Amino acid sequence: MTERSGMxxxxxxxxxxxxxxxxxxxxxxxxxxxxxxxxxxxSFQVQHPEVPVLLDHGRxxxxxxxxxxxxxxxxxxxxxxxxxxxxxxxxAGAVVVVDRPSVExxxxxxxxxxxxxxxxxxxxxxxxRFLTGLPTRHSWSTGFGEAADWSSDRxxxxxxxxxxxxxxxxxxxxANVVGELPGTGTGDRAVVLVxxxxxxxxxxxxxxxxxxxxxxxxxxxxxALELGRVLAGRSWRHDLRVILFxxxxxxxxxxxxxxxxxxxxERARIRAVLNLxxxxxxxxxxxxxxxxxxxxxxxxxxxxxxxxxxxTGLAVETSLNPFASDHVPFLDGxxxxxxxxxxxxxxxxxxxxxxxxxxTVTTDLAMQILRMDAAALAGWLQPVEAGQKSRAEGSSVxxxxx
Length: 402
Ligand SMILES: [Zn+2]
Known about the structure:
About 30% of the residues lie in helices and about 25% in strands. The chain has ten helices and 15 strands.
C-alpha cells in the first residue's frame, strides 16, 4: 500500500491544504522537498522521528524529504502486505487533501427525526461493554469468535438473516459476519452496506496480549449493530447488509476477500458502502467527523455532509485520499464506499495497545456520527410507507444497475 516508485518530483511551487492549514513552497532552490504522509495513529512519526514534519494534521502530514530519500515502512509483527503509513510526493500546483466543506442543512422531516430518535446510547454502550470485556478480539483468538457469536445474535434479534464466512489471515483464519435484511421494493433492488471491523490488536504485545479495542474498533462495530437495529425497524425499498469483518488489522483481509468473492451482478448491485472505523474518541474541542472516500464516492460524501449539517452539530472534514480501512478494497473494486471516522483520529495514541479502553470512548460523539450515518442511509435505502410504493429518491446517489 506504500507508493515508493513512479513518483514525480515537484518541478514548481505549489501549496497543499489540510483542513484549515495551508503549506506553500517555492519553485526553486530545493529548500524543502515536501511529501504527503497518510498514517494510522502516529505510525510514521514513531518510525521516522528524523524526518521533519512541516505541517501536522494528524492522519495527514506534510514532511520534508530534503535530508534523504523516501523512508521504507516497517511491517507490524505478523502482518503481510500491510503498512501503517504511506508516503507520496506532492505534484506541482495546489493540492487539497482535507477539505472543510460548507454545506447547508436540508429540511428536517418527521420521518427521519423519528428514525434518529430510535438510536439508543444505552444499546450502543451495551455492545461496547461486551466487546471491550473480552480479553482480545485478535483475528485468530477465541475472543474474536465470541464477539462474532454475540454480534450474530444481536443482528438476528433485530431481524437479519446472519451467515459467517471463513477467511484466511496470514497463517491463521478468521471470519466475516454478514447480516442480510431484504428490502420490500418491487422490481430490481440495490443493496446498501454498513461495515466495520470486529477485530482488535495489541501491536507491541502480540496476538495474545490484552486488546480491548474500544475505539478501534469496538465503537464502529457497536455503531454498525446499532444502525442495523434501528434501520431494521422500518421498511426500505433496497436491501440492507451489515458486515463485521475479521483480519482488518493484519491487512484488510476480511474486506479484500469479501470483495474478491463478489459475483459481478452482486458487485453492481452495491449502491453504497458506509464503513465505520473509530467513531468514539473525542480528540478535538469541537466534535468532528472525517468523511474519507474517492472521486467515485463523492456523492455519498455530499449526502453525509448534508446529513451532518441537518441533524447534528458535527464539524465535517472530507478527504478523497482513502487509506488503511475496509472502505479501500471496495473503492479499489470500483464500488462507491466511504469511511466515517472521528476527527483528528491520530491524536488518539491509545489504539493498537492495552490502553484502548472503554473509558476513552465518548458515547455522545459516537451517537452524533450515528445520527449522520442513519440519516444518509435512510436516503440511500429509500423508505417504503405502509401500503405505498417507495417515496421519491432521497439521495443524490444514482442507482447503479447491473
Ligand atoms: Zn480500525
